[in-house]
Amino acid sequence: MRSSFPPFACLAAFEAVARRRNFSLAAGELHLTPSAISHQVAKLEQFLDIRLFERTAHSVELTVAGDDYLNRVSGAMAAISAATDNARKGVRNSMHVHSTPSFATLWLMPRLTDFVKEHPSISLSMSASVTHSDFSAGHTDIDIRYGAAHWPQLTVRTIFDEQIMPLASPSFIRRHRIVTPEDLMHVPLIQSTVGVLQWPDWFTAQHIVHTPGSYAYRFDRAFMALDAAVQGLGVAFESTSIGEPHLRKGRLKPVFETGEYLPVQAHFLVYPERHAQRPEVMSFVDWVLERAASEPDLNMRRAGLGRSSRPRAK
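Structure tokens predicted for LysR substrate-binding domain-containing protein (314 residues):
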């Protein structure tokens, strides 16, 4: 029976050439000759029955099949490298967490010191991007995702119930004399283009027939939309949980004293069920959920606000 796992030396040669785009540089990195590297790559191509590189006299480029294969194996190779490095350093409880950028920047990082203090034996590595982790690559233990929760065959844990409402800087609210929801029809609005809820949802919940024809500013990350609001560029429609650092320091505030918001569940801890067998993974999951539960409606309690407005059916 033919093995489905190619020789690791071939994978190492392929990854080095793909990264360096040069056989000689890859050979120097792996302490081999260029001919040996070429032989390993050719052996891998024969094993896979695909062509991985287009070679010319002056360059080496990945084929479409080669680029796809690199994307699939690079995470696994990084995981092997990290595991090896940890083993050399005597680290036993290592874990890699991937997160959406806004959650990592505004919620997780300000609280991470507490996790480290509570779990000093866990070696934690983190990354952040808008792309969901591919658990089959073997690199990520936990993925913190944003969006509608539909990930079959994965364990999905809701982090918190969020409150989405208009947020702006105090000076912006005073300058534009915003008093009623209708006033938002005449001021610059900031759109988070990937938000689960959008401005039309809020206007509908206020029984206002208004769909913004355009937005003054559009961003595909919540932290950028919030930063724009802090700078007084307009009103953001964002989560008070994610915007908590700005609210706590007074850089932003709910636009309306009644604090009407739309409820949503949009941030989730996601991982394969098999990962739940690892104590360090469950320690992190439990810590995030406990920390989130200990801060319910933090900004609403402080301001004495909080009235849910659910949008009407469209």
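Residues 168 and 235 are 5 Å apart (CA to CA).
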